[in-house]
Amino acid sequence: EVGELRVGFVGAGRMAVGLAQGLLRAGKVPASSILVSAPSEKNLDTWRESGCRTTHCNLEVLQESNLVFLATKPHILPHVLLEIRPAVGPHHIVVSLAAGVSLQTLQRLLPTGTKVLRLMPNLPCVVQAGAMVFALGSCASDREATLLKHLLSSCGLCEEVPEPYINIHTGLSGSGVAYVYLFAEALAEGAVKMGMPGGLASRIAAQTLLGAAKMMLETGEHPAKLRGDVCTPGGTTIHALHQLEKGALRATVMNAVEAATNRACDMAKD
Amino acid sequence: MSVGFIGAGQLAFALARGFTAAGILAAHKITASSPDTDLPTVSGLRKMGVNFTVSNKDTVKSSDVLFLAVKPPIIPFILDEVGPDIEPRHIVVSCAAGVTISSIEKKLSAFCPTPKVIRCMTNTPVIVREGATVYATGTHADVEDGKLLEQLMASVGFCTEVEEDLIDAVTGLSGSGPAYAFTALDALADGGVKMGLPRRLAVRLGAQALLGAAKMLLESDQHPGQLKDNVCSPGGATIHALHFLESGGFRSLLINAVEASCIRTRELQHLADREKISPADIKKTLLDKVKLESPSLSVASASKVSLFNTKS
């Protein structure tokens, strides 16, 4: 099935680039099997450099591909759907990346019976360390779920979820990547204050986050336990953690996830 | 084996009650003494069948294990008073917060070359046999002496040996801990009452919830964080409540509390070591009664009491 796969992208922006690069790096799909469309030349150079085929015609993507990723900006998507609708058939698998556009809307604007899925990736898909969730539309089945998981696991973690979890994923991981950057920046600044050069501090901060995350994923242990393991009685770590607790870091992070999730829900209603 | 308590207040009462309820000691094998017979705990001890006396010396004579169950500033007076009666068989157990083994040994060495001293930090739930106790053994206390104390204290809860320098931290955590719990329970009950529960039921349910949670943790290998997660259904009531706790800095408040109690314990110890506790801290009537029993005791001046008078 994967061998007959012809992958198309409507929209050539960062998210699409990220997914495509993930697919290519993992060797799941040859570049020649990928066709991308965009209104202007602006985004298409990177694609061509990777060996993908490009076009300015959205309909062509539908005609040439059986697995189509819709990667336009959310407010443009409804127009694009109406445009491509005539070319959509029962053999297509349509995967929308658009934040805030529900399966219900997608199914309403596409022919009845179309296999539709919604995917919410995050930026680190580009380096094959993404976190992605997807939800099945009413005509999509386990087959499509398995195919998508198989293809995208090369880009990182990929799980099927009920649609309501997608907005939560946005708050946790879509936007969450930015929280991590903020934290990393702050860590490095602390180090700079204590006398370490910024470049070095930054690299160490990033590696610290990477290492900690890797331990969480590989040991499967509860983060509270992993945290306790680092805390020698009366040592440096527990002193530092006390500062974080005094600053109510936990509640603030919860607030952030909540705010982003709520915003995703609100935007979906617009 | 007989046990004696110098002091007949909350601690003596709690331990005596615990030991007798555990069946490890018969009441008539316990003696408690205090010059102050008006303490409410005195009648409680009497009712239990404990031998009560106003003479600390009598307590020493009739005990093998001698608990010093008085407030820290009183310890030096007690040691001066009963020092002459301490024999090699005695195991002197001090429960006074912030009073070091070395300060006790120093005092007693005036009377006895190798006093067996054990320092202990326990807490009030020994009264219901759910105490948390740690002990550190002094220079001349043997392993068997420690084990003997451990056996006694294990009958009223958890007991383990630690290095002496950890005892202040233990004070901050489990010494003061029941007070934090009582405060939390009072507030939880308020929450229940606010939402419509009768007070008695609210108190009962709150206490049972904490008891049950503590028991689960003690009987589980799991981290408390994991146990917490197990209670939090996605989007449910509990996680909403926890968010409030986090916003209020709940965790850091508890860390602060343990730290404050530990630091204060150390401060009091330093104050004692530097002999800076004023006689105003000690009831004049109590001081007079102690002086009656031990005329050799000297009080240095009106403004400052020297806590570590050596016999001249």
Gist of the model:
The complex is a heterodimer of chains A (270) and B (312). Chain A is an alpha/beta fold and 270 residues long. In chain A, 53% of the residues lie in helices and 14% in strands.
Helix-strand layout with pairing:
The complex is a heterodimer of chains A (270) and B (312).
Chain A: E1 7-10, H1 14-25, E2 34-37, H2 44-50, E3 53-55, H3 58-64, E4 67-70, H4 77-84, E5 93-96, H5 103-109, E6 115-120, E7 130-136, H6 142-152, E8 156-160, H7 165-174, H8 176-193, H9 198-219, H10 223-230, H11 236-246, H12 249-269
Chain B: E1 3-6, H1 10-22, E2 30-33, H2 40-48, E3 51-53, H3 56-61, E4 65-68, H4 75-82, E5 91-94, H5 101-108, E6 116-121, E7 131-137, H6 143-154, E8 157-161, H7 167-175, H8 177-194, H9 199-219, H10 224-231, H11 237-247, H12 250-273, H13 284-293
Parallel strand pairs in B: 1-2, 1-4, 2-3, 4-5, 5-6, 7-8
Antiparallel strand pairs in B: 6-7
Helix pairs in contact in B: 1-2, 7-12, 8-9
Count the beta strands of chain A: 8
Main β-sheet of chain A, in a few words?
8 strands, mixed
- Going by helix content, strand content and strand pairing, the class of chain B is alpha/beta
Radius of gyration of chain A: 21 Å
- Provide mean pLDDT of chain A, rounded: 93
The CATH H-level homologous superfamily of the largest domain in chain B: NAD(P)-binding Rossmann-like Domain
How would you sum up this structure, described in words?
Chain A: Residues 163-265 form the Pyrroline-5-carboxylate reductase dimerisation domain. Chain A: GO terms for molecular function: pyrroline-5-carboxylate reductase activity. Chain A: It is an enzyme of class 1 (oxidoreductase). The complex is a heterodimer of chains A (270) and B (312). Chain A is an alpha/beta fold. Chain A folds into two domains: 7-162, NAD(P)-binding Rossmann-like Domain (Rossmann fold, 3-Layer(aba) Sandwich); 175-268, ProC C-terminal domain-like (ProC C-terminal domain-like fold, Orthogonal Bundle). Chain A is built from twelve helices and eight strands. Chain A has an eight-stranded mixed beta sheet with strand order 3-2-1-4-5-6-7-8, with helices on both faces. The mean pLDDT of chain A is 93. In chain B, helix 1 links the parallel strand 1 (3-6) and strand 2. The longest helix of chain B has 24 residues, at 250-273. Chain B is of the alpha/beta class and 312 residues long. Chain B contains 13 helices and eight strands. The chains are: A alpha/beta (270), B alpha/beta (312). Chain A binds chain B through residues 222-225, 228, 242, 245-246, 248, 250-251, 254-255, and chain B through 222-226, 229, 243, 246-249, 251-252, 255-256, 259.
